[in-house]
């Protein structure tokens, strides 16, 4: 039979409809089988699916389909991370309401997602902007408030003095407001925060138990939490110099060992001492105003030039009352960390060294590297932060850094001034409480009311949700909730007087910090979760997403789960048992002579004499081929999933995504390779059809024995089954695909021998074809369904059990040993399993490579290390 070409355009929608009608991917909460929860990070409804989504969701889908076939009750839901600034920008630019814009986008993207053939349980779908979702988020906010896990706190915000509004960090461009262009100021305002720092130590410790998370992600989280052990030291101030008789300055240091290398003290511009000094010194006040303009973002502070202002205040060295250190206000000291004050030791800290070099304060090295001579060791431009022995440090000289740290801590914690010890061991965390207030319309309203009499009053549970007004206008800058004529004006639930709603909404990271738990029972109207169900279905067994979310989203979700536990909404601490970060889809960039970027679709790339050259399809103008980069709109190096699916079908797109590189690495989009995937689909289709023809004449019963040809094919089939099963579990999809290709070749070889095979071979062909179709079904589910029908198999392959591996067939009947001559590898030899030493020796000595290496010398000895090495000693 000559089969027709496989036509994805016809088959794919047909199978998608069938799966949908039979609702085979809907998982039931009362399913008694063991559960497996696969989740990919849900998308922001920007309007269109991009190719990165296709990769992300395909990876999860392969695992979901596989685990389903393995007999698990698989939960594989999908929803929408639907609040956020772009919807408001669309409202401003295009005059569409954020809600309408968002839901239109969701509808469009859902269609696109469905065309990929993902085995999703759409019955659980929700968007975080649905009041039926955020109602529960508001409830949990109030629970957190009662539990002391949410609080109000004064925080610095970006303030646009022209537009009179708070700006999000992404609305500040080069220190100016994105719309007004005005220089942005920092203003202190009351903000809502979640008390994530209550869990700093625990969030850190629990990382050790997350053994199915990438090491790099755990490390990033560790660094973000940033635990450091150090010493809090109370330096005495020379009161003759302090602005209002202040007597001490508290600093935090992780390097008390370097105390004898101190050259100056530095305090933050926001430090009370700096404020007090500025009140008496207009020049200092001016300096402070100046350095505050650069903002508080860490990266700006790290890269900005070090600047300081000598306040004239002197601090006294804790080990030498006659040693006075100048106190500077410096732009690299943050108020939010430690005590907002430091002592500077330039020889061993680069920032301090840059600082003293600028202000000519000099430096004294106090740690001498092991290979340096203490008499001549000097520091000029590069601080030394390595190991060594103490020098120039009086009673510390000769000690190691660790010994010196301990000695200083011991002495200072036993010494007292006033009634308190001068030094105190302290653990500090870099992690700050999570500020969740956003002065934006399109977010989850924070459910509190401000009453002039009763202060902050929670919205009563019965009044939830606090919904967004749909008639907000966006013609004025700032928060549309605040501008709304009526929305914020309410009566106080406590005293009945006039009061105002909180007009801040929650950071959208809150929405994505618990959606995974909501998926377990999105139908519960009364509560965020249903304990019996959430505790059975959670944690997520495999979470998959981009590494760009490796820090904040995952950390916030880990905090939120703990806070939900503390308030009775879940009974576990860690939401994601397994985490996988996928790589990006990248593509070459193309630029015209005038520097503008053009899309791959507009360009023709040819290789002439091995040199790749690109020209515009229309017009033929020369185009420069630029570097391979992450697909982005600005570089125009994107490919549209719709185009790819329309041209090749979803299965080809899926197969390509999986085949070309390991899932955690970047994959380079290549039209040629996509075409290669497309050819492979046609080849599989032909082979399955040929196999089906033979299968029809194959004996129904399994033959009592198999000849060598049938046995070899069966070994190839079960070998592939074994490797692919193990590979999918480890998400080594590209390796799985290589095994499938290899197995396909083995089947093709057998089929090539003619269409009248012996009965045992015919039976083996049928078995192989069925296994092959099952192996490809997680990756190319539509093609697999179509092949399943051709092979006359019952039901849907998407519902079939994963084939049983016959382990006997996995035992190789030959072994390959490395051959060495005088300890040097010269080749290898393959002998029957169980071969005796004389047989192995004979085979080895007959090898040309061995004869050559011996060069005619007699063989003294042959040593056989069973199953591994044969060493010929000559
Ligand atoms: C003296 C010293 C000598 C320091 C030396 C370092 C090296 P981590 O590890 O991040 O905790 N520091 C403390 N508070 C600061 C603040 N608010 N803003 C900027 N820097 C601050 O870093 C702790 C070190 O960072 C502290 O130890 C302090 O400088 C500085 F050779 O004290 B060190
Ligand atoms: Zn009141």
Your description of this structure?
By secondary structure, the protein is an alpha+beta fold. Helices cover about 35% and strands about 20% of the residues. The strands form ten sheets. Strands 8, 9, 10, 11, 12, 13 and 18 form a seven-stranded mixed β-sheet that branches. α2 (about 50-70) crosses α19 and α22 (about 735-750) runs antiparallel to α23. It starts with 7 loop residues before the first helix and ends with a strand. The site of ligand ANZ has 18 residues, from β9 and β13.
Query: What coarse outline follows from CA principal-axis ratios?
Result: globular
The major β-sheet equals: 7 strands, mixed
What is the mean pLDDT?
Answer: 94
Assess the beta-strand content as a share of residues: 15-25%
How large is the radius of gyration? 34 Å
By DSSP, the count of extended strands is 37
Poorly predicted regions: none
Structural class: alpha+beta
Query: Which molecules are bound in this entry?
Result: ligand ANZ, zinc ion
Question: How many helices does DSSP assign?
Answer: 26
End-to-end C-alpha gap: 61 Å
**What's the helical proportion of residues?**
25-40%
Summarize the structure in short.
This protein is α+β, with helices and mostly antiparallel strands and 874 residues long. Helices cover 35% and strands 21% of the residues.
Tags for this model:
alpha+beta, single chain, 7-stranded mixed beta sheet, 874 residues, binds ligand ANZ, binds zinc ion
Any chance you could write out the topology, listing elements then pairs?
Elements: H1 8-22, E1 35-40, H2 51-69, E2 73-75, H3 85-94, H4 98-114, H5 131-146, E3 150-160, E4 165-167, E5 172-173, E6 176-177, E7 185-194, H6 200-205, H7 215-225, E8 227-237, E9 248-253, E10 264-267, H8 272-280, H9 282-292, H10 298-303, E11 308-317, E12 320-330, E13 341-344, H11 350-359, E14 367-368, E15 389-390, H12 401-414, E16 416-417, E17 420-421, E18 423-429, E19 434-435, E20 437-438, E21 448-451, E22 455-458, H13 480-483, E23 489-491, E24 498-501, E25 505-506, H14 508-511, H15 515-518, H16 531-537, E26 542-546, H17 552-566, E27 579-582, E28 585-591, E29 597-598, E30 603-608, E31 611-616, E32 622-630, H18 641-648, H19 650-659, E33 667-668, H20 671-697, H21 708-729, H22 733-751, H23 759-776, H24 781-790, E34 814-821, E35 824-832, H25 837-845, H26 848-854, E36 861-865, E37 869-873
Parallel strand pairs: 1-2, 1-26, 10-12, 26-27, 28-33, 34-37
Antiparallel strand pairs: 3-4, 3-7, 5-6, 7-19, 8-9, 8-11, 8-18, 10-13, 11-12, 14-15, 16-17, 20-25, 21-22, 21-24, 23-24, 28-29, 28-32, 30-31, 31-32, 34-35, 36-37
